[in-house]
Amino acid sequence: MLKCLFVFFSCAMMAAPKILVIGGGPAGLGAAIEARLSGADVAVVEKRDVYTRQNTLFLYTSTLELLERWGVHVPLMQELYFQGERRGYVLIKDLENALSQKLADLGVVQMRGECHRVQGQQAWIQTSEGELRIPYDLLVAADGAHSHLREQLGIPSIHYGEALAGVVMIPAVHKEGLISVQILNHPQVYIKKVMIPSATVFFFQTRPDAAGGPIGLHECVQFAEDMGLEEAELMKSHCLFCLDNVPIDVQKMERFADPMQNMIFLGDAAATSSFYLGTGANYAFKMTQVAKTLFQHFSQEGAFAQFDEEMRPVCEELVQLSVPLFCNHRK
């Protein structure tokens, strides 16, 4: 695989641009699909060898339409309706596996490794078999909220606050094909109760004006009991799964491209949102659509500046959805 990757990115006879994507989350995988469909030679570097994240996602109609355009089939996704609009309900690992399969079908090289340095349009990738130095024409940094590439380049970000979040899912039977959402007011945490046909999902997030503390299954049960919820007992005995103490750091980069390194930032590397709101993946796909034009025209003068300008309102909208949930604002 590594030899194939080296040849893939080094062959001087190839006229197609070489686009290297760092990060195999929704933003990175989606960007890789768009780059490949634009005619580029693409490789994806991801540090995980297996997708296992259990986060539940509610995908917007626009995201579902994008997946359909890409020809991505997510076998385990449920299609539901909320206020008359389509929504997709899926675990993030199932979405990532489906996106990865589409890349395989498109002939995109996917490898396990970590990018620890870029310089002169070359990326140094550490793999289990050693270090690779890979040349690229354009690098897409989609390496998460704690982006190593962003830190290396010294690109500052604005931080809006921290919190802890948790998710508890319990089995239930509700009206077929519909989603209902209820916001509950607890003095210590924000609580969102989402009912889908097969389950009830509770999202918890610490309030900025409340005393800190863990959010594990025990605490979530206590919060539910405080609110007099009948689901509290089911949480104890029939919990399908629980994600606890998930740290949230809402932030936004001050710029989204580095033309000196022919690099752009997408997904959580560019801007993060509250885990409680569950909007991040949808905005990650919006960012791939901003990048779509750049994949075809990044060699043109002003292309990176145009990308940066178009990214700003997308990232600002994402962050502002979460700002009311946090009290501190610092640089």
Task: Tag the structure with descriptive keywords.
alpha+beta; 331 residues; 33% strand; six-stranded mixed β-sheet; FAD/NAD(P)-binding domain; single chain
Report on the architecture of this protein.
Helices cover 32% and strands 33% of the residues. It has 331 residues and is an alpha+beta fold. It folds into two domains: 2-51 and 96-158 and 250-325, FAD/NAD(P)-binding domain, CATH 3.50.50; 163-248. The longest helix is centred in the C-terminal third of the chain and has 20 residues, at 303-322. It starts with a helix and ends in a 9-residue tail after the last helix. The mean pLDDT is 91.
Secondary structure layout plus pairing:
Elements: H1 2-10, E1 18-22, H2 26-37, E2 41-46, E3 56-59, H3 61-70, E4 78-82, E5 85-91, H4 92-105, E6 109-112, E7 114-119, E8 122-127, E9 130-135, E10 138-141, H5 148-153, E11 157-171, E12 180-185, E13 189-196, E14 199-206, H6 217-226, H7 231-238, E15 241-253, E16 257-258, E17 263-265, H8 280-297, H9 303-322
Parallel strand pairs: 1-2, 1-10, 2-6, 10-17
Antiparallel strand pairs: 3-5, 4-5, 7-8, 8-9, 11-14, 11-15, 12-13, 13-14, 16-17
CATH superfamily of the largest domain: FAD/NAD(P)-binding domain
Strand count, sense and closure of the main sheet?
Answer: 6 strands, mixed
Tell me the Rg in angstroms.
Answer: 21 Å
- Percent helix range: 25-40%
Write down the secondary-structure element order.
HEHEEHEEHEEEEEHEEEEHHEEEHH
- Please give the count of helices: 9
Fold-level CATH name of the largest domain: FAD/NAD(P)-binding domain
**Shape, please?**
globular
Give the number of DSSP strands. 17
User: Cα distance, first to last residue?
Assistant: 42 Å
Task: Please report the first level of CATH classification, the CATH class of the largest domain.
Answer: Alpha Beta
Mean pLDDT: 91
Strand order, largest beta sheet: 6-2-1-10-17-16
Q: What low-confidence regions span 5 or more consecutive residues with pLDDT below 50?
A: none
For the record, the count of structural domains works out to: 2
